[in-house]
Amino acid sequence: IPVLDWASVLPGVMQPTIEYVMAAEDLRIPGEGILIGDKIYSGVTLTLDNCLLPLERLQQSPSAEHGLSADTEEQLRMRGCELIQAAGILLRLPQVAMATGQILFQRFYYCKSFVRHCAEMVAMACVHLASKIEEEPRRVRDVLNVFYHLKHSKGKRAQVPMPLDASYISAKAQVIKTERRVLKELGFCVHVKHPHKIIVMYLQVLECEKNTKLVQTAWNYMNDSLRTDVFLRFSAETVACACIYLSARTLQIPLPDQPPWFLLFGASEEDLREICGRILRLYSLPNVSLPSMLKEVDQCHLALDARIAKAKLAGGGLLAVGTPTLDVPSSFSPASKAGETDAHHSPRGNTLCNKDREREKERERRRERERERGRGRRDEYSRRR
C-alpha cells in the first residue's frame, strides 16, 4: 500500500517517509492467527455451529456434577422455560423473543449449576436480555412485576402489586447482576437462529403451505421443543424438519419418500427420530411439585458445602467452585528480600486487612444512610399525596 510522502507536500515540515506498509492479510498465518512481531495472536471465531454443545458436555452437566438427579434437572429446565413463556406473554413480547430467552436459559445451565444459581433469577435475566436482543426492550421493573404476579397470584383473581421496598431494590440489582453473569458465561455469543421462518419455507417447497392445520401443528411442536435441549444439539434446519415430520405423522399426511423429503434439507432420519422422541417425552413427564424439587436442590447445596468444608479441613485447598489452590511461596514477589516476612503474617499485612475492613464498613454505613434517605423521600411523597 503506497503511503504519501509528507516531506514532499510540506517542505518545511520534516516527517518520516515510509515507502510501503505491509497489508494485514500478509500477516495472517492460515489456521493459526496473526503474526505481530515475533508472536502469533489467534483469532476468535463465533458461528452458529459452535453454539451447539458436544455430546460429552451434554452427558455430564454442571448440575449433575453437584449431585442433582437428571429427572429433577429436566423438570427444572422445563419449568424455567414455561415461566419465561408465561412472562413473555404478559409482557407482550413477540414469540421470537420468548424463544431466545428459553434457549439462553438452556445454554446457561450447561455452563453453571442449578445448585449454585437460582432458576427464577436466571429466568428473569434471560427475559430481560432476550427483549433487548430482539429489539423489544422491557424495563427491569416490568419484568420483576410480572414474575411477582406469576408467583403470588396463582388461583387469585385480585392482583397483588409488588411493594417498592428494600427487597425490590435488591431484586432489581440482582437481576442486572445475573444478566451480566449470563453474558459472561455465554461469552457474549447470544445470537440464536430460530426455525419459525424455516418451517414455512420448507412447507412451501413441499407445496403444503395451504394446509393450515399442518402448519399450525408443526409450529406448536416447535414452540414445545423450546422446553427441551434440542436447540443445543441440532441446527435450526434439522429441528424444523423434525417438527414437520412429527406433525405429518400425527395428522397422517403423506409426504414424498422416494427419496425421503428431508434429505433435500440436509437432515437424517436418525436425528429426526431423536428430536421427535425428545418432544413427545414432554407430554409423558410426571407433574412434580416445585417445592419438592427446590428441597432437593437445597439438599444438594448443603451436601456440596459440606464436601468443600471437609476438603478445606483435610488440607485439600479447594475453593468454593472446586478449583484447587496453589500455595504461594514466601518469596512470591520479585521485590521481596531474603529474611522478609510474608505480608499476610506481618503487622503491616494485618494493618492493611484492618483498613480494608474499616473501608467496607464505612461503605455499608453510607449505603444504609442512602437507603434511609430514599425511604424518607418516599414517605414524604406519600404524605403529600
Please write out the topology.
Layout: H1 6-9, E1 28-29, E2 33-36, E3 39-41, H2 55-59, H3 62-65, H4 70-90, H5 95-108, H6 119-133, H7 140-152, H8 166-185, H9 196-205, H10 212-225, H11 236-251, H12 269-282, H13 290-313, H14 347-384
Antiparallel strand pairs: 1-2, 2-3
Helix pairs in contact: 4-5, 4-6, 4-7, 5-6, 6-7, 6-8, 9-10, 9-11, 10-11, 11-12
Describe the protein.
There is one protein chain. With 385 residues, the protein is mainly alpha-helical. 55% of the residues lie in helices and 2% in strands. The chain has helices spanning 6-9, 55-59, 62-65, 70-90, 95-108, 119-133, 140-152, 166-185, 196-205, 212-225, 236-251, 269-282, 290-313, 347-384; strands spanning 28-29, 33-36, 39-41. The protein has a 3-stranded antiparallel β-sheet with strand order 1-2-3, with no helix packed on it. A hairpin with a 2-residue loop joins strand 2 (33-36) and strand 3. The protein is globular and about 80 Å long. Residues 1-30 and 324-352 have low confidence and may be disordered. Keywords: Cyclin. Residues 193-308 form the Cyclin C-terminal domain. Pfam families: Cyclin_C, Cyclin_N. It comes from Oncorhynchus mykiss (Rainbow trout). Residues 354-385 have a biased composition (Basic and acidic residues).
